[in-house]
Amino acid sequence: MKYTSQNVLIISMNQLKKYGAIGGAVALVLCWPLAVGHIGQKVIEDGVAQLNNEGVTAEIVSYDRSYLSSVVETRYQVQDPILKEQLEVDGLPTELVVKSDISHGLMSLTANSVLKNFPDFPLLLKTVTQLNGNTEFELSLDSWSYQGSDDQTVSMSISPSVATGTATVLGQVSFQLNVPSVQLDFENGEQLVINQVSAKGEGKQENGFWLGEQSASMKQFSILDQNHDSLFDIDTIGYTFKSSLNAESDRIDTQHIFDMTQLTYPEGAQLSDLNVDFAMNSLDRSAFEGLVSLYRSNPSLAHADINEIAPLIENLFARGFQVSMNDMHFKIAEEEFKSKWLVEVPEGTENVSRDPSVVLPALQGNMNAYMSRGMALAHPMLAQGVDELVVMDMIKEKDAGYELDANIEGGQLVFENGQQIPLIALFLPLLMGQSMGQ
């Protein structure tokens, strides 16, 4: 092939393009850690800013970013005056400074974080944050013991514990927690022992309310005397919270489930097989979230502005909702109690804030309860009331106990025999007790 000056020029240009492409790729690779560091800093700054709320403030104290790594210090301070005062009284910190050593990866940041102002506390947080902000985390606590001061004579020890999970920029969170044991030793020789605490959850925080599922359990909770004999003992206790949103109807369903295998208290008395399954369904979303928000800012609703509460209550009842005890049962010794009920506020129940008396006549639902004979006989006043209801054919006497079955119609309890009693009669003992207490 005969090379002309034009051919040579074309070949040279192609070579230059090739070298330029290679050089550009090398430059991009060399500069990429800097880009990752810059993008990561923005992600972290945005994440810390989102942690600010009325109770806690978060800020970046320093951010030293270099080529392949960064060192960041963030400060978290409790601002809620009541919580802050209580923490100070208990000798607990109201400010934490976190130091994070960050490595710049190809598409993520890996960080190891410790408490700078408590260097002896063996807590380590490992995170891997993608450039889109999604984060995987592992929070681990090594074996730790705490000895109180002369004024605080309680000592505490915690076995190695770990929490893992993920958090997305959309607010979706999943987590798992495992704490094998916690022990508190008091000056008089008594002990508090907690074993096998675990928790897990998946969902997201939306407008101050959790949508999803969370659960926690504990295998053992015991209080021991100086001779290590049990004074109070709980065997296997658990709690589950579920909530979901029906986007089409804009309503929220919630469910609380509490269960316990056995509780033994002084003199050997036992409560066992406890289960409580309570639900609130079809709640108007905006009204419910508004009430939750008001409660968070005013734990005692008496101090909240009635002008804010009234329209939310009005909205909630006008759209209707259901409250139900899907199951409640327990045993004391061998005696048993079971109950379930459903109360529905129908849609269109209005003017509640101006006239609360409209609520009871509107209620619908049903009620069922069972009590073993021995439980009734153990309480003479209760037994007398049960006997009277049996005579009136409002409660059925069974071989092993008594059963009540009734519908709720127009604020009345309606029994199978057609007899009725006002629903308010169920609340009179409580109301009378409260007025006498005042």
- Give the mean pLDDT: 81
**Poorly predicted runs:** 3-35, 429-438
Number of helices: 8
The helical percent reads 25-40%
Order of helices and strands: HEEHEEEEEEEEEEEEEHHEEHEHHEEEEH
Query: How many β-strand stretches?
Result: 22
Name the overall outline: globular
Q: Could you give a short account of the major beta sheet?
A: 22 strands, antiparallel
Percent of sequence in beta strands: over 45%
Distance between the termini: 112 Å
What features would you describe in this structure?
- It is a single chain.
- The protein has helices at residues 5-50, 81-89, 285-297, 306-319, 359-362, 373-377, 380-391, 428-437, and strands spanning 56-65, 69-78, 95-104, 108-115, 123-130, 135-141, 144-147, 155-158, 161-167, 172-185, 191-206, 209-224, 230-246, 251-265, 269-284, 321-332, 335-345, 364-372, 395-397, 401-409, 412-415, 420-422.
- The chain is α+β, with helices and mostly antiparallel strands and 438 residues long.
- It has a 22-stranded antiparallel β-sheet that branches.
- The longest helix is centred in the first third of the chain and has 46 residues, at 5-50.
- The chain is globular.
- The N and C termini lie far apart (112 Å).
